[in-house]
């Protein structure tokens, strides 16, 4: 599978799983889980697309993993800093750590398992 498509699919799936971790890390937000999962899937989709694109341009495992980690953290940061309107709590680490890990995993997978698209003649 090419690197961009792998990043897009993996980012979306892992983003959904990232959203589901809210049930464990903050069970009081269970009533909002559909919105949280959809938001995490959207973040994962866009971050995975960017990570896959980077992986296609730069063929270096360390650079890909660091770029993925940075993208995961960057996309999670605004949500991590936001205050939950219903509880008034801030779930900084509960959002930032899983989001960063998703980016790291996608960065690793796209570099390690993604196939570079053949050059056009």
Structure explained in plain terms:
This protein is mainly α. It is built from 5 helices and no strands. Helix 1 (3-20) runs antiparallel to helix 3, helix 1 (3-20) packs antiparallel against helix 5 and helix 4 packs antiparallel against helix 5 (92-113). The longest helix is centred in the middle third of the chain and has 25 residues, at 33-57. The protein is elongated. The model has no long low-confidence stretch (mean pLDDT 92).
Q: Radius of gyration over alpha carbons?
A: 15 Å
Class from secondary-structure proportions: mainly alpha
Distance between the termini: 20 Å
Question: How would the global form be characterised?
Answer: elongated
What percentage of residues falls in helices of 4 or more residues?
Answer: over 70%
Strand content: under 5%
**Low-confidence parts:** none
Give the secondary structure arrangement, pairings included.
Layout: H1 3-20, H2 22-25, H3 33-57, H4 61-81, H5 92-113
Give a short summary of the structure.
The protein has helices at 3-20, 22-25, 33-57, 61-81, 92-113. The chain is an all-alpha fold.
Jot down its keywords.
121 residues; mainly alpha; elongated
């Amino acid at each position: 599978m090419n690197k961009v498509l792998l990043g897009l699919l993996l980012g979306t799936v892992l983003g959904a799983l990232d959203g589901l971790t809210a049930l464990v890390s903050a069970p009081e937000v269970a009533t909002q889980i559909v919105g949280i999962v959809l938001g995490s899937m959207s973040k994962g989709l866009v971050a995975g697309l960017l990570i896959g694109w980077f992986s296609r341009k730069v063929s270096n495992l360390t650079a890909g993993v660091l770029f993925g980690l940075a993208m995961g953290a960057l996309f999670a940061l605004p949500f991590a800093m936001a205050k939950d309107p219903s509880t008034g709590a801030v779930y900084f680490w509960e959002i930032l750590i899983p989001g960063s890990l998703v980016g790291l995993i996608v960065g690793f997978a796209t570099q390690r398992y993604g196939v570079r698209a053949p050059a056009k003649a």
